[in-house]
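--- STAGE predict ---
source: upstream dedup step, 1 unique chain passed
mode: sequence only
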Amino acid sequence: MKRRCFFQLFLGSALLAAPVLAHHGWSSFDQDRPVYLSGTLTQVKWQNPHTEVMLRVDATKLPDGLAARALPAQQQSVDAAGILKKVQVPANAAGVWEVEFAPLSRMQAWGLSQPPKVGDRIEVIGYALADENKRVLRVEYLFAGGKVYALRSSPVN
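--- STAGE serialize ---
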């Protein structure tokens, strides 16, 4: 009987932990090279563990004045000015990228309670996978609808 209870407890714990284990960390992203992408949304998945979109990138250069844009304060300490100074458009930018945003709770804390829609234009600054053959970006800053959102942590109140 004890053996059966232990097995059930173990199995139940393993099933609860599976979603956590399936979610990846951010260590596979190159956090020394911030990337700028701009384009049109072709797909939106408004879900946890984080929102994902497919972005058809058409920008091949940085927009004028990007380095002077004001970025919002957030709870975690982030060198926003340093990121803006280092940001680049990758050589292989044109095409479709998978873009990963923050968890829904953080998106909502920034006032993004409704998902962007297919066809919307957005700009993002973030970090691409270190494997440059894969077009995946983790977003640090989102520029959409005339607003800017800092997605590493919640906004400063």
